[in-house]
Recover the amino acids of this structure.
């Protein structure tokens, strides 16, 4: 039923549906309005982009395109304001290998965002990248706290450290980019999207650095950081969710969606679904995943085309609209993105906004 | 979900979330808790869960006598930190 009120209904009918329709009709109308809103935003954004000079031209010392990193030593405490500097921007290598790994991986992540997406750091305004290593005691985790990235050394049994995998560092920095753009609520489906976006760009940072095409890449998250108690190759696989290690419960499609109250509603579990959609889109488009698939996802973020509580289908529709805006309605890219969300069971044929966006 | 062993005299602790998203569990006899640990948990039982601390933080769930408390990592009280340290090698 959703498809029939999706595209050609006049605004006053929408308003009536919103006031008096069944809950399902209201939800469908809201979806459509948000799609409409996205299209208007996209038109405005595209016009603004076309009018802008190429920003890379103004990169230089002290200007845009210049990374600034500081790596602190948390000294095995839960200290999110550590002050002991292990390595500052431009300094020689530290005797501490974790500090150098974090420094290098943050540099690679910055370089990816600047070279590929012309984004100048987390806030697109040159924000310093602050990382802490040796966070906590045998701490089996890494996280972004809103200002800094914290990296534990791992317990040695489950994890062996978090700075050695570039996609982990890219994942954490991307949480900052998400916070600065669409600020997805960290619970349920919007939380799983937040997680997925970090996995997507974490993977792309690695693929860009290694020069790997979508077909050549492993699409693994957390490669090489598993300790002896974990049996597997990584923590997550975007190519084949649920297969990265013994006990990996990520679904690849909506039929496996996990309802749970743990992990803020399974944000690291259900992220397998949008992760797999990205993988399917990127491999169907072919070539380097960061060039087109990555740009499409990023477009949704910089446009703020979805609300903070976006569910999977809202985000999915926004990516199809973004692909249509960037590459044309009916383009290979728009079709690949729509097909990918269809394959993971997020969008049905009637929910795909290709007809709506073809009018742009 | 794991049920209590032998009639609920165990405190069950679940740690979920984190970058790895692993849901791990450990348990300890309620009788083995320090008084202040037990008090800190009891104080939090059946409270509405707090909003998430932030991306990739751990979430703890304490279950005791059929009731539970959900505590976000950055809201773990100092009284409970030693308990979590004792459980560090018991997560499964």
């Amino acid at each position: 039923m959703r498809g029939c009120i999706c595209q050609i209904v006049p605004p006053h009918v929408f308003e009536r549906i919103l006031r008096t329709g069944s809950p399902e009709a209201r939800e469908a109308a809201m979806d459509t309005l948000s799609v409409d809103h996205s299209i208007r935003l996209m038109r405005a954004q595209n016009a603004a982009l076309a009018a802008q000079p190429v920003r890379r031209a103004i990169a230089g010392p002290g200007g845009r395109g210049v990374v600034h990193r500081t790596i602190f030593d948390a000294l095995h405490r839960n200290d999110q304001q550590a002050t002991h500097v292990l390595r500052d921007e431009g300094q020689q290598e530290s005797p501490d290998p974790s500090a150098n790994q974090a420094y290098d991986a943050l540099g690679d992540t910055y370089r990816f965002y600047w070279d590929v997406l012309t984004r100048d750091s987390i806030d697109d305004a040159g924000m310093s990248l602050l990382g802490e290593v040796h966070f906590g005691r045998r701490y089996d985790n890494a996280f972004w706290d809103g200002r800094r990235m914290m990296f534990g050394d791992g317990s040695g049994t489950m994890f062996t450290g978090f700075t050695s995998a570039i996609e982990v560092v890219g994942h954490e920095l991307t949480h900052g980019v998400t916070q600065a753009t669409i600020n997805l609520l960290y619970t349920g489906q919007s939380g799983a999207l937040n997680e997925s976006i970090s996995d997507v760009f974490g993977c792309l940072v690695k693929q860009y650095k290694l020069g790997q095409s979508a077909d050549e890449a492993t699409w693994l998250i957390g490669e090489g950081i598993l300790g002896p108690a974990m049996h597997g190759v990584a923590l997550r696989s975007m190519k084949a969710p649920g297969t990265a290690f013994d006990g990996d419960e990520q679904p690849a499609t909506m039929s496996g969606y996990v309802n749970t109250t743990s992990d803020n509603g399974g944000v690291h579990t259900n992220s397998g679904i949008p992760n797999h959609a990205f993988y399917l889109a990127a491999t169907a488009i072919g070539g380097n995943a960061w060039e087109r698939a990555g740009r499409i996802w990023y477009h949704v973020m910089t446009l703020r085309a979805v609300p903070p509580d976006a569910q999977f289908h809202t985000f999915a529709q926004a990516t199809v609209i973004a692909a249509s805006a960037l590459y044309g309605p009916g383009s290979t890219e728009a079709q690949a993105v729509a097909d990918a969300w269809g394959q993971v069971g997020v969008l049905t044929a009637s929910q795909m906004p290709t007809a709506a966006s073809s009018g742009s | 979900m794991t049920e209590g062993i032998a009639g609920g005299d165990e405190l069950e602790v679940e740690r979920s979330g984190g970058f790895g998203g692993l849901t791990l569990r450990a348990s300890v006899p309620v009788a083995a808790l320090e008084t202040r640990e037990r008090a800190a948990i009891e104080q939090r039982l059946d409270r509405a869960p707090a909003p998430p601390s932030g991306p990739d933080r751990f979430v703890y769930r304490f279950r005791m006598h059929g009731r539970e408390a959900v505590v976000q990592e950055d809201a773990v009280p100092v009284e409970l930190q030693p308990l979590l340290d004792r459980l560090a090698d018991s997560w499964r």
About this structure: Chain B is about 15% helix and 30% strand.
